[in-house]
Amino acid sequence: MTPSVNLCLVLHNHQPIGNFEGVFEQAYQESYAPFLDVFEPFESLAISLHTSGPLMQWIADRHPEYIDRLRLLIDAGRVEILGGPIYEPILTMLPSRDRIGQIVAHTAWIEQHLGCRVTGMWTPERVWEPSLTADIAAAGIGYTVLDDGHFHAAGLTDNDLRGYFVTEDAGQIIRIFPGSERLRYTIPFAEVAETIDFCWQVAQQHPGAVLTFGDDGEKFGSWPETHDHVYRDGWLKSFFQALVENAGWLKSRTLASVVAQTSAAGKVYLPAGSYREMTRWALPTIRQQELEAATEAVADSELFEPLRPFIRGGFWSNFRVKYGESNEMYARMIGVSKKLLAAEEAGADPSELALARDHLYRGQCNCAYWHGTFGGVYLPHLRNAIFEHLIRADTLLDTAIAKLGQQHPVAAPFVTASSDDYDFDLMQEVRLDNESYSLWVAPGHGGRLYEWDLKRIGVNLLASMQRRPEPYHSAAADGVSAAAADAAVYDRFPRKSLMDHFWDPRVTLADVADGVAMERGDFVDLPYTAKLRRGTDRVQLQMRRDGNAWGLPVTITKAVTLLAGSDELTVTYLLEHLPTDRELHFAVEMNFAAMPAGADDRYFSDADGQKLGQLGERIDLEAADRLALNDQWLGLTVDLRLDRQSGIWAFPVETYSQSVDGFEPIHQSVCVMPHWSVRGDSAGRWAVQMTVRSAVAASGHVTEPRVRGLEVVG
Q: What pLDDT is stored for residue 477 in this prediction?
C-alpha cells in the first residue's frame, strides 16, 4: 500500500470559572486569536477544536468577531467543534445526572451559537473511569480523546495505536482516540521536521493509520516563551506549510471525518487514569517524591522500558484526601446537587431551577479541586468562585423549595439547624442557617467551624488553605532557591475557626505565626460531644470536651448561637476544672479568607475605627476587646467583639507554590487569635463570650454575576 497517515490536530482551549478578566484577555490576544490568524490562510487544513464553556461564553461576550470567524471555518468544513461538559468539571467526580446535564448543556450552547452539530467531546484533564462511557453515550456523544498512556495501561503498544477504538459500558458504546504523547512533546517544541519525520515513519509502517495530537491550545502562545516561538519565529506557519507540502501522504483530518470514513482499530476497556503527570500529582507528597526518585534510578535499566507503561501514580479522587479543602468543595457541591434533584422531584419552578443548575455546574469547574505544577487549589480566586456559585445555587434552591411550603416562608426571618455526615467521613457535622449565614461545624474535629457562608455576596469566609509540603518546596527542586524553600511554613491542622489551643506561657506572635509554637492541649482536632437546642427565634449548638492541658484535666464547653434575622454569631466559652493557683495560656483561633492582603483598602481597625495596618501585616494587641477586618472592595467588615479584654494576635497565612512566574507566596487567609492567661475562680471556672458580625455595604463590588447562554434542558 502507498504510505499515508491521517493526522488529527485536536486543540483544547480553557480558562476556569473565576479567573481574572486580564488573564482571559491576555490568553485571547496571545493564543486564541493569533492561532486563527495563522490557520485561516491554509485552506486545505482542518482541525478539531474544543473551547470550554467559561471561555467560549467570555469570547462570545467580549470578542464576537472570533465567533463569526469560527462559523465561517465550520461552514467550510475546516473546524470541527467538540463539546464536553460545559464548565469543564472532572467528570468522574460528578453524579451521573450532572455528567449528562453538563454535556447536554454545552452541546445546546454550541448548536445555538455556532450552528453546528456536536458529535465528539473533550474529556477534561483526560481523567477517565470506565463508567463514563454510558453517560457520555447517553448525552449524545459518539467519541472523545484520551492519552495513549490509558491504552498502554490496558496492554496495548504504540504499534497498536494507529487508529481509534471502541469501548463499552452497560451496553453503551463510544469511540476513543489515543492522543500521542510523542506528538504532545514535539508540537510545538521540537523542530517541525521532527514531527513530519515521525508521521512519515508511521505512514510507511502502517499505511492509512490515524495519529492524534490532543493538547492545550494555550501552548500555542500563552505558555511561557511560546508566543515568540510559535508566532514571531514562525513555528506554527512553518508547521502548517509542511503539512500542505506533504499533503500527498499526510492528510489533515477532523475526528468527525475519521469516524465517518474509517473503521475502528478494535475494542478496548481502559482502566481508570489520566495523563502520566496527573497520576503522580494525586499521590501524597512523600510517595510522589519516592516514585519520581525510583523511576529516575531505574530509567537506564533494560527492564525499564517494558515496565514503563504499567508504572502509574495515584487515583484522581485522592486529591480530595490530599487536600481537605478540595473535599470541602466537593462535599458542598454534592449536597447542592442532591438538593437540586429533590427540588425537581418536588415540582419546584423550572425557571428557578435552571438558574440554580447553572450555578451548580459552574461550581463544578475542575481547576480549583486539584493541584499539579501550578495554581489549582492554592489559588484563592478560583476557590472563591467555586463557593460563590455553590452558595448562590444553594440559596436559590432554598427559596424554590420554600415556595412549595416545605421550609420557612420566603423572605421571612428564619433560623434552622440540621446534622448529617456532610463531608463523608462517618462523623456528624452540623449546619446552622438563617437569612444571612450558613455555618458548618465539625464537632468530631475539635468543634471547629469549617465553612461560613455569607449568602448575600456568595462568600465563604473560611475558604482558607492549610500550608503543606509540596515536592517543589525542596531547595533541590529546579528553580527554587534555598531562601525560598526556607520560607515555607507548614500547618499541623486546617486553617479554620473556633480551634482551641493551649500554648506555653511565653509563646509569642512570631512563634505562632511561624508554626513553631508547641501545642499543650488536646482540643484542636479531637472530638467534642454535641447537642442542638432549638428555640422559636434561635438555634444553639453546644459542644463539650473533657480533655487536658499540660497534663491537667480541663473541660471546655462552647456554645454557638445563631438568631433569626441577625447578622451576628455568638460564641460562648466555659472552661472548667482549671487550676486556681496557676495560669494557663488559652487561645481561640479564627481564620478569615476571601479578603486579600497588600492593599490600603483592606485593613485592620480597632474599637475606635482607627486603622491598624493592612490585612497582610502582623498585629499584636494587648488588653483589647475588639478587632475589625475591613475589605472596602468587597464592602465587607468582619467585626470581632469580646466581653472581656484579651491579647489579640493577627497574622497573614501564606502558602508558597509554583506559578509561571516562579516560586511565589499566595495570601490565603488572616488568622485572628484572641488569647488569655486563664485561672479558675473558686469553682475552677472561667468564661468568655465572643460576638462576630459581618456587615456588607451596599457599595461593595460583589454583585450577582450575569449568567449567559442559560438553557433549560429536559
A: 58
Q: Give the domain CATH number at 40.
A: 3.20.110.20
Grid cell for residue 557: 464547653
pLDDT of residue 553: 97
Q: What pLDDT does 661 receive? A: 65
Q: How far apart are CA 556 and CA 429, in angstroms?
A: 19
Q: How many Å apart are CA 339 and CA 345, to the nearest integer?
A: 10
Who's near 393: CB < 8 A, 6+ residues apart? 336, 340, 356, 357, 359, 360, 363
3-state SS assignment for residue 701: coil
d(CA 556, CA 680): 12
In the chain, DSSP finds a helix count (H) and a strand count (E) of 21, 26
CA 11 to CA 73: how far, in whole Å? 15
Q: How far apart are CA 379 and CA 588, in angstroms?
A: 26
Element (H, E) at 584: strand 584-592
Computed over its alpha carbons, how large is the radius of gyration of the chain? 28
The per-residue pLDDT for 699 is: 56
CB atoms within 10 A of CB 600: 9
Catalytic residue (choose from 30, 80, 88, 125):
125
Nearest CA-CA partner of 526 in 505, 544, 514: 544
**What pLDDT does 385 receive?**
98
pTM: 0.95
CA-to-CA separations, 196 to 39, 255, 281, 310, in angstroms, rounded: 18, 20, 32, 29
Q: Which domain holds residue 329?
A: 323-412
Q: What element of type H or E holds 27? A: helix 21-27
Is there a single domain that holds both residue 75 and residue 209?
yes
Write the CATH number for 334: 1.20.140
Question: Which one is catalytic: 129, 168, 216, 639?
Answer: 216
Q: How far separated are the first and last CA of the chain, in Å rounded? A: 50
Burial class for 576, CB neighbours closer than 10 Å (0-12, 13-18, 19+): middle
Q: What is the pLDDT of residues 357-400, one digit of tens each?
A: 999 999 999 999 999 988 899 999 999 999 999 999 999 999 99
Query: Do residues 345 and 208 both lie within one domain?
Result: no
CB 444 within 8 A of CB 432: no
Low pLDDT (below 50) residues in the chain? 703-714
Residue 73 pLDDT: 98
260 and 162 in a single domain? The answer is yes
Confidence (pLDDT) at 361: 98
CA 278 to chain centroid: 14
Among this protein's residues, is 537 annotated catalytic? Answer: no
Sheet holding 437-442, edge to edge: 415-420, 429-434, 437-442, 448-454, 459-460
Contact 565, 538 (CB under 8 A): no
SS3 130: coil
CA geometry: angle 221, 226, 231, nearest 5 deg: 65
